[in-house]
Amino acid sequence: MADKKMVEQITSMDVDFAQWYTDICKKADLIDYSSVKGCMIIRPYGYAIWENIQKILDTRFKELGHENVYMPMFIPESLLQKEKDHVAGFAPEVAWITHGGSEPLAERMCVRPTSETLFCEHYANIIHSYRDLPKLYNQWCSVVRWEKTTRPFLRSREFLWQEGHTMHATAEEAVAETVQMLNVYADFHEQDLAIPVIRGKKTPSDKFAGAEDTYAIEALMHDGKALQAGTSHYFGDGFARAFDITYTDKENKVCYPHQTSWGVTTRMIGGIIMTHGDDNGLVLPPAVAPVQVVIIPVQQHKEGVLAKAAEIADALKAAGLRVKVDDSDNSPGWKFAEYEMKGVPVRLEVGPRDIENNSCVLVTRHNREKTFHSLDNIAAAVADKLEEVRRGIYEKALANREKRTYICKTMDEIIAKLEANGDGLVKAMWCGEEACEDEVKEKTGVGSRCIPLTEEKLSDVCVCCGKPAKHMVVWGKAY
Amino acid sequence: MADKKMVEQITSMDVDFAQWYTDICKKADLIDYSSVKGCMIIRPYGYAIWENIQKILDTRFKELGHENVYMPMFIPESLLQKEKDHVAGFAPEVAWITHGGSEPLAERMCVRPTSETLFCEHYANIIHSYRDLPKLYNQWCSVVRWEKTTRPFLRSREFLWQEGHTMHATAEEAVAETVQMLNVYADFHEQDLAIPVIRGKKTPSDKFAGAEDTYAIEALMHDGKALQAGTSHYFGDGFARAFDITYTDKENKVCYPHQTSWGVTTRMIGGIIMTHGDDNGLVLPPAVAPVQVVIIPVQQHKEGVLAKAAEIADALKAAGLRVKVDDSDNSPGWKFAEYEMKGVPVRLEVGPRDIENNSCVLVTRHNREKTFHSLDNIAAAVADKLEEVRRGIYEKALANREKRTYICKTMDEIIAKLEANGDGLVKAMWCGEEACEDEVKEKTGVGSRCIPLTEEKLSDVCVCCGKPAKHMVVWGKAY
User: Fold this and answer.
1) What is the distance between the alpha carbons of residues B136 and B182, in angstroms, rounded to a whole number?
2) Which has fewest Cβ within 10 Å: A1, A289, A325, B114?
3) Which residues of A are less than 8 Å from B122 in CB distance?
């Protein structure tokens, strides 16, 4: 199988997980590098995954009443400085524009790292009365944060995302929106991306710059490291006060509205790779796979084979599936390896003998299971297989997380379990003091990821200081 | 009708067309301004028009085999400088990033004004053999050009667009792609936006920086000024040579591929406003209208009215139409004016008496024609009305263009016709010399817009110098 090797030029994940990740990004044609340091080119196959993600999420946002807008990509320095925590959080990592053409600017501007300040300035213009609330806006765009160390999808200087920004009459309504959007993200991950997540609140030290509360979903990657996969922030009325956004309520009283923001990014593609991928390449969740089923004609030069492949493709497309027929002159072996590398969930093989039997072979990517199927009602059989892949990869990811979740009551236990079983999530109680958070991280290597919304009480005392515990925290090493 | 006036606060187009345009942009809730000078906020109603434009065009591009990608938004100065005509054209109008966080950059970068250089660098990496061709890539993104004078949609420092970049084995194939995409733009304008356009080639002085040929579609606005509504460029192999992009052909010979690029922008929304709008506000082509039909319940407090409005809305939605019911407590008169301002193509009024008669009233926005219709099969009646609006506004725009097109054989004739009839398109012969182009512009005020692909021969000699003519040129004042 010389041509099989031609495709499979990736490092084994057990040998070097980081190199395996980079290999997949490159060899599955997801990204390329350019002379723009720290940024990536998202190639057609990678961008098609993002387009599928966008379609699903955008539909859900709109069903919940959100509207899309577009704000300028620049933020004047004085505008960025209006909310003090916000500017302190972002100013050190923005890209600064100082010249337009050959003229120096009167005031320098940064490329947006996030757009709270722009939305707030606009809201101050358009919100006057309780009738103007709620405002449920979302924006799809790219943002820039001047990261020192970068990795494709996970941390790059420019990335694509959506940022929801909403304004509400009451704190209760805004908190409900914050939690609602966290749940949208969690459902999307679990149902569509087949990635199990923990819904939680960040500890105060880890909140978004300017937020009262930051909620996040945390996923565990194959190597035992945690990935923050989406965040939803409740701002209270802090930005409204800084930007002088007010509305008149029904009793004619002037009030500050309450605000949220929430976002997910191209980082999710990194999460898909590291949750589902294996040593043969990418494994894509069917909901976002650019090609859900690839048809490989076997002995395609024989009469009737290509025609049958095309006929099957038409039947699958008519059922709404994303299908590709590979009738190139590469060998079937090369093609098998190529589409395994690219993570196509289902492969359909059809050759002369299959056609005689009115049947075909279906192979599911995640477990390479081969089954034979009648060509009658083949679309339903493929749809079943896609659902099988979705469930299969979800369960595999969940099993990995369960195997790598360690309940610990002492610092020594944390160290011992990580040492014995490898990286993973630690569940341990915490007193609420930042000093203990820091000490846990310093001594054991795992930092606080979140306080799960469904808390378990593991003991009465903080794993670090032994004082009364306030919360159960999930700890982990983060990407 | 006091509340009607509340809505209709726009300048008449005959009094001040520029102010009328700005009024519509603001009062129809398309845009807002911010502290970012020269940039605009695209509000939900304006952005929904852009989303509809994107959906239609993106589908067409993909049907023709194009794939979407995403390139970095930054271009290092040295990369911008690789093609000498290109850098000369763009360097004076780019925004420069000089600092990342608090560190000065080793090399400054500009925000992309267009992405030829990035695509070329990538193509040099991924094109090696004739098997890698053609490459048919497209990108949806925002770009920045540091304009001195700005107007919403028409000319802003940041705008949204798509840029197609393709690579082909032969010059013939690349030219065919250039013309194909010009035709896609022209069809989209004529069929979907209901804007008649002239398909033409730019004169050499007006070509895109680095192109061998620039094709464009030109539309005539209501006030007699021309708008370049889309461009498609043939590059030959100039960029390929500058960026060292080569491929090996079937005979194993190393060759340079041939390139195209093509783009349309949010400027098209400006074209829609200035082609179809009137003194009552915006008039939207049904294909891109965020709301195609608005249902206004009359005497909505009476029993059964709101229920019937909702029932009609459901029937229209089931037929795939974009529908809104306005059951707010504003008066019907206020609502009529509001949705006229917003350019909703069809208004459906239904009140107690209509319900008794199993009927409703349909009003088409562009001519305010009122007709009565049975509620049986109302979706088909509304669809007919939408098609009536599309045809009606197209014909109105075409009539305006015909009325304002002046065939001229002498300079005096140009001056006299523009003087007598107002701004418009001049058709006149040209010798091919840039000096004559300049002289026509200087003496008559109209510049060359394009050489139409279907040329008419009006005379044998140049309108300016009297020497033998090479082409018929369409001249006009441009936005």
Assistant:
1) 15
2) A1
3) 32, 34, 41
Q: Cα angle at B227 between B226 and B231, to 5 degrees?
A: 130
Q: What is the CA radius of gyration of chain A?
A: 25
What are the DSSP calls for A297-343, one per residue? ESSTTSTTHHHHHHHHHHHHHHTT--EEE--SSS-HHHHHHHHHHTT
Q: Specify the 3-state DSSP secondary structure of A251.
A: coil
Cβ–Cβ under 8 Å, residues A83 and A239: yes
Which region, left, alpha or beta, applies to residue A299 given φ > 0 means left and ψ of -120 to 50 means alpha? Answer: left
pLDDT in tens, B351-399: 999 999 999 999 999 999 999 999 999 999 999 999 999 999 999 999 9
> From its phi and psi, is residue A339 left (phi > 0), alpha (psi between -120 and 50) or beta?
alpha
3-state SS class at A278? strand
What pLDDT, on a 0 to 100 scale, did the predictor assign at position A1?
41
- Give the integer Cα–Cα distance in Å for B427 and B407: 5
Do A68 and B74 count as a contact with CB atoms less than 8 A apart?
Answer: no
pLDDT for A7 equals 57
State how far the Cα of A423 lies from the Cα of A74, in Å rounded to an integer: 40
The torsion defined by the Cα of B166, B171, B175 and B176, in degrees rounded to 10, comes to: -90
Asked if B170 reaches chain A (Cβ–Cβ under 8 Å), the answer is no
Q: What is the pLDDT of residues B399-413, one digit of tens each?
A: 999 999 999 999 999
Number of H helices, E strands in chain B: 15, 23
Residues 6+ apart with CB under 8 A from B314: none
Q: What is the pTM of this model?
A: 0.97
Query: Any residues with CB less than 8 A from the CB of B257 and at least 6 apart, and which?
Result: B123, B127, B133, B167, B168, B169, B237, B240, B245, B246, B247
Mean pLDDT of B258-287: 98
Q: Does A404 touch chain B (CB under 8 A)?
A: no
B80-99 residues touching A, CB cutoff 8 A:
91-99
| Among A450, A39, A23, A224, residue whose Cα is nearest residue B118 | A39
User: In percent, how much of chain B has pLDDT > 90?
Assistant: 95
**B121 contacts chain A (CB < 8 A):** yes
Mean pLDDT, contiguous 10-residue spans, chain A (479 residues): 57 96 97 96 98 98 98 96 87 94 94 97 98 98 95 97 98 98 98 98 93 97 98 97 97 98 98 97 98 97 96 98 96 95 98 97 98 97 98 98 98 98 98 97 97 92 97 97
Cβ of residue B73 closer than 8 Å to a chain A Cβ: yes
Q: What angle do CA B187, B191, B194 make, to 5 degrees?
A: 115
Q: Please report which confidence band the pLDDT of residue B2 belongs to, taking 50, 70 and 90 as the band edges.
A: very low
Query: Of B70, B265, B118, B145, which is closest to residue A160 (Cα–Cα)?
Result: B70
CA distance B107 to B122: 20
Average pLDDT of every residue of chain B: 96
